[in-house]
Amino acid sequence: MLPESDYQKLTAPESIALVGVTGRSGKGSNNPLEVLLNFGYRGRIYPVNRKGGIILGRQAYTSLLDVPEIPDLAVICAPRDAVPVLFGQCAAKGVRIVMITAQGFSDGDEQGRLMQEELLAVSAKNNIRVLGPNTLGIVNNFEHCCTSFIKFINYFKPIGITCQTGAFYIGAAQYCTGIGLMIDTGNTSDIAVSDVLGHLARDSRLKVINIHMEGLKNGLEFMREAQDAVTRRPVIIYKTGASPAGSAAASSHTGSLAGEDRVFDAAFQQCGLLRAADIEEIGDLNKAFCTFNGIKGKRIGIISISGGAGVMAADACIRYGLEIAALSEATFEQLNELFPAWARCSNPMDIWPPSMFHGFQYACRRILEAFMKDPQIDAVMCLIFSHLEKEDDFLDASGVIREIAAQYPDKPLVASTCGGRYQDYQLELEKENNVVFYFSLERAARALAAMYKYHHLIKKKERRPAALPEHPGQIRAAQILAGKSKGNLSQTDALSLLEAYGIPAARWEKAQNSTEAVLAAEKIGYPVTLKVISPDINHKSDVGGVRLNIGNSRQLKEAFTEMYKEINHKQPGAQIDGVLIQEYLPKGTELLLGCKKDPQFGPVLAFGAGGVFTEILNDVTLRIPPLSRDEMSVLINETKISKILAGARGGTAANLELLTDSLTCFMQLVLANPSIVEMDINPLLADADRIVALDSRVTLG
Amino acid sequence: MLPESDYQKLTAPESIALVGVTGRSGKGSNNPLEVLLNFGYRGRIYPVNRKGGIILGRQAYTSLLDVPEIPDLAVICAPRDAVPVLFGQCAAKGVRIVMITAQGFSDGDEQGRLMQEELLAVSAKNNIRVLGPNTLGIVNNFEHCCTSFIKFINYFKPIGITCQTGAFYIGAAQYCTGIGLMIDTGNTSDIAVSDVLGHLARDSRLKVINIHMEGLKNGLEFMREAQDAVTRRPVIIYKTGASPAGSAAASSHTGSLAGEDRVFDAAFQQCGLLRAADIEEIGDLNKAFCTFNGIKGKRIGIISISGGAGVMAADACIRYGLEIAALSEATFEQLNELFPAWARCSNPMDIWPPSMFHGFQYACRRILEAFMKDPQIDAVMCLIFSHLEKEDDFLDASGVIREIAAQYPDKPLVASTCGGRYQDYQLELEKENNVVFYFSLERAARALAAMYKYHHLIKKKERRPAALPEHPGQIRAAQILAGKSKGNLSQTDALSLLEAYGIPAARWEKAQNSTEAVLAAEKIGYPVTLKVISPDINHKSDVGGVRLNIGNSRQLKEAFTEMYKEINHKQPGAQIDGVLIQEYLPKGTELLLGCKKDPQFGPVLAFGAGGVFTEILNDVTLRIPPLSRDEMSVLINETKISKILAGARGGTAANLELLTDSLTCFMQLVLANPSIVEMDINPLLADADRIVALDSRVTLG
Question: Do B633 and B655 fall into the same domain?
């Protein structure tokens, strides 16, 4: 997080130097001075242009060094090749915050990438913080400050935004529905979302935070900031570059590396960020969070001017995990008298039959009031008609809806319509900022579900634990790993590593020939499994290198001979370092426990269905460690295989306590040993009595 | 399908009687005569009101019987209780098509349900076809005809629509973007979507068909009509009542039964219907199909005014299964010169750098022309800014886009924007009906993907086969099923049924005691499996009623004794009819092959992962039979388990020919024996040599 004073200089500077500002002005001139003046900025402005002259009525300085004070913020608004010299002036002047708008740095070619690195070297030496390059900078609608060289339609909304592309900045009116305070980090060479998120979340003028993200450099720092931020404000994140093609475009754009989308998704979920699937969801959620202070639960009352639309609304609620409220006795009694004998008073409630008998406005008011008052309803969705031209519109309920919403400020009331004049209705309904209109009931339900999730799951969520204590097995583990080079650890070392950390493995012995194998098997006890040990063989079963359920010494000797023969046939010349004799365990559920080092987030845990089904079922959940024991349980329960572990279909339940122990030890192991870049225990066998690793693969980097 | 003359009378009547029309008129009067006159209807109109008098300048008849001709269409627009008498007049007059607008029939109480049944009895006797009750009837914008008593904003679009709720009818301007010809079947007591779909699909004035569906009465008839319709026009379906809560609301609304959503989904997919997830998707797809005649492939060219937005566009394309086009050499050469040295000419293409050097309008035109001309690009997505107020807007590319779209009518060009003035841009861009605007790139990609799906997958899809020939095993099967009452078939009968139809089962014998069991096992050959036979035991394994892998007679006797003991302990008093000795097969992939009789669609096939994972993995695909062998392959390949069947991870591939044989026989079995209401083969074991049923459960109804 930026120090408070730096953040103030960045977002609410008392003085700004526009370094390299153009002398042109008016339509299409892209003059940041013009934008700043139009914003009504009240601080001191210093235009700098090497030709000097008057720009928009203000005397330009020919050098930043001539400016009579050290400005809080210098905005370099010249093309790429002019930037190094101007940046040098900033350093010489002692400016603390420098913003660079030009493109063509890490978003461009190799030369640009080097130029960006050089700027960073200069800034490090001179204690400068840099925003950009390739940024439009900041918009502060509270302080009438904006550093963009592009004009744009600027709607105010109490929303804090960080983004990595100008499209999000100047598209904010469309994507976010408006701006309170916005920071575009552009290429994000220095100042990043983690530097500003905490400040935005603490800003009492803002009601919701939006993040547009293409990539990250320090995932764990981001997670720390995000986890704190969500305790203060709802944070909606829109991550682009999710597809491989998108990722390619992302790296060519801002030079930030887009990571594997599933890892990001796991991290966002762990932090309690609300991930938006598309730009519409951002705006939809913003409207809800800006309008309503909270939602008491997820029981929805549905009022509809048509039975068919009531069905659509119920579908939408269920789809997003909301519940259809059971009306309280009082509501039922108050409203039942409005209905003709043949129609039902229920939720969803069809207003049409009572309207026909009691008049539309009256029925609508009575029903709406009863629903807003009903303690068994946490939010109301209301679908009305918008099908008549204004002069014919005797069914316009927008006034009643606004009026009643104002009386019950603690219960969200969202509306949608049916008919061609929906845009007029949107304006009418949202006029007093106490009702939110959605084009569809699906979008209404999605927004209410997000509110419920934020207020009841995210805000109440346990915070991530601090670092874990060192496991006593680390001394032994360090010995095993000491001096090992990059690549795969031998299987016996991998198994020893597990044992060091107290993760039980099936009993095993190494053997060099069939005689040793028989001795080993007798020590372990039949039945046993025979596995080849070879640095050259990646998938043992594919070359016949695994023999299961061997019952006696005769079978073992046969299996030994056959195995060597088959390997020699299928992978001739493979180096064979002997065999592994392992306790054969026929029972239990096959699990996968793994870890992969991610460039952004470090070790990422993977847990789920193992064995032959691993890739095909893809029943694996990811988490960024460390995790508390409670979080481990949540992780386990997110997988489908957890139902089998719980003892589905008459099976015995696995010992989840022991499983959680193994997960914890595994987590400690990978966190304490950064040389492990990939590690799989697959299968990890779980049954009622034991958790046993049968196979493990460790890759060092 | 309705006979042509009936369809004409329904949708383009030359004369209409409005039976029970109100004498009121003006705002809020809900007078269908007023709506009809406002529509400019050119046929003959006969108002009927028992008080007579002048309504809107026309003399009303006091009885339908006084009308001087038999009108093509009679619209009964009186409240429920007046309907039977007026319907009787229609019958006496000899009217062929009668429409009933009143609510309170099967959508209301029990009395209403009975009244609806009585109307149908009268209509059957008098050869009348009924639309409704609870319907607003039809809109025909080609013939200026509308039977609604509610006014509504009426936009013309070349779209044919059927729906089951007035919300969709009067909301069509919002949900569908307009109407060409619309039929609301209301409670769908008689005339249903299947009656009109074929006519809409054959109507050359229409470009796309929309179906809003709450439920169906004859699923197979609907499928036949739908399969034919999609060869003529794209058909978009929006099915409500998908959630249990939605279903409850649906049955209370129109009285049509909403079936299980997954079965509907399978049926829709088989027919080639495009299922819309929400109302926005309907409008989005309509716009594309109404504007573009086709799409050559799925390679998308992306032009964006921002690199960041290009990433979003690429994400959106990949998400919906589109491809990012590789630019042709010619395009690259033409456009590369526009770019500064540090920027890349690629797809997605960022227009901003070339605009800075060559002017925005010029760069935009050059790039757009090159993309539209490029034979390696099948459709273009274009993101432009809409961020400036009109007077400042030097970046308005809407004119260039429209102009170039007009020059390349065979290549879809869709646009989205970024900035607050997007609604103006939408109007501008769509002005000449050759470009479609979408609020987001996701929605643009979804619409292009639907076009690709329709033109390249659905239209080219193999049609469903006719009924299958009778299997020679049917004689034996009929013997087994003869005289059997409702409930579960015994396991031996179930296995015999499979054998009759040539579905191989593991070799089995029945035995009454341990001596018979040993004899049976010797006949089959060890190892064997022992299973209890009991009409009282549902899940054999839960009570210890299954013993696997028995190697010899001693083990068999022991297992026999132990099994009886355990069952006696766990389910005392269960009737035991002996045991099943079965060949033990340790190898193979466990599958599920099942069938469930659906109220709408009859037998529904289920295929997927079996064994203990069945419910948990939920890896099951549904289909409405009959299926061709090719369709069987598609069915198999839709499951995740198919990767294991294909021999993933070094496993041997299962024999898919034999598997398809078994599926075909199973399909013939359930189609030929309608008394089977549920049937499961689980597990069906598949390996390289054999497909073997291990267990089967058959429920008769």
Answer: yes
Does residue A495 lie in a domain region? no
3-state secondary structure of A497: helix
Is the CB of residue B445 less than 8 Å from the CB of residue B414?
A: no
Strand partners, A697: A680
Query: Which domain CATH number covers A185?
Result: 3.40.50.261
The Cα of B691 is separated from the nearest Cα of chain A by a number of Å equal to 20
| Cα-based torsion angle of the residue sequence A622, A628, A633, A636 in order, rounded to the nearest 10 degrees | 20
Minimal-distance CA residue of chain B relative to A543: B650
What is the residue whose two structure tokens read 């987590």? Answer: A667
pLDDT above 80 for A465: no
A579 three-state secondary structure: strand
B57 Cβ under 8 Å from any chain A Cβ: no
Q: What's the ipTM?
A: 0.92
CA distance A57 to A28: 19
Residue B618: half-sphere exposure toward Cβ, Cα within 13 Å? 7
Q: DSSP secondary-structure letter at A457?
A: I
* Cβ atoms within 10 Å of A309's Cβ, excluding its own: 31
Which candidate from B112, B245, B542 shows the least CB-CB separation from A342? B112
**Are B279 and A644 an interchain contact pair (Cβ–Cβ within 8 Å)?**
no
Does residue A388 belong to the interface with chain B, where contact is any CB pair within 8 Å?
Answer: yes
- Per DSSP, A595 falls in state E
Domain span holding position B378: 293-458
B/e letters for A371-383, b = 16+ CB within 10 Å, e = fewer, are bbbbebbbbbbbb
Burial of B699 by CB count in 10 Å (0-12 exposed, 13-18 middle, 19+ buried)? middle
Best residue of A311, A355, A356 to probe chain B, by most B CBs closer than 10 Å: A311
What's the longest Cα–Cα distance across chain B? Answer: 100
- Give the Cα separation of A342 and B110 in Å (integer): 8
In a shared domain, residues A301 and A446: yes
Q: Among B276, B121, B131, which Cα is nearest to B193's?
A: B131
Burial bucket for residue A641 (CB in 10 Å: 0-12, 13-18, 19+): buried
Burial level of A271, CB count in 10 A (0-12/13-18/19+)? buried
Give per-residue pLDDT as tens, A253-297: 333 333 478 899 999 999 999 999 999 999 999 999 999 999 999
Measured distance CA(A112)–CA(A115) in Å, rounded? 5
Do B307 and A254 make contact, defined as CB atoms within 8 angstroms?
yes
Q: Which residues contact B264 (CB under 8 A, 6 or more apart)?
A: B216, B239, B242, B600
Task: Write down the pLDDT at residue B38.
Answer: 96
Number of C-beta neighbours around residue B474 at 10 A: 15
- Same domain? B274 vs B297: no
Of A529, A481, A483, the C-alpha closest to A505 is A529
Q: Is B138 helix (H, G, I), strand (E, B) or coil?
A: strand
CA distance B507 to B521: 10
CA-to-CA distance for A400 and B393, rounded, in angstroms?
A: 39
Residue B578 shares a structural domain with residue B596: no
pLDDT digits (tens, 9 = 90+) for A353-364: 999 889 999 999
Q: How far apart are CA B58 and CA B21, in angstroms?
A: 12
Number of other residues whose CB lies within 10 A of the CB of residue B689: 12
Q: Which of residues 339-378 of B touch A (CB under 8 A)?
A: 340-344, 346, 348, 350, 352-353
Which of A532, A567, A583 finishes a domain? Answer: A583
Provide the 3-class DSSP secondary structure of residue A129.
Answer: strand
Query: Are B371 and B388 members of one domain?
Result: yes
pLDDT in tens, A592-649: 999 988 888 999 999 998 887 777 778 888 999 999 888 999 999 999 999 889 987 6
The pLDDT tens digits for A514-548 are: 999 999 999 999 999 999 998 888 778 778 888 88
- CA separation for the pair A124, A104 (Å, rounded): 21
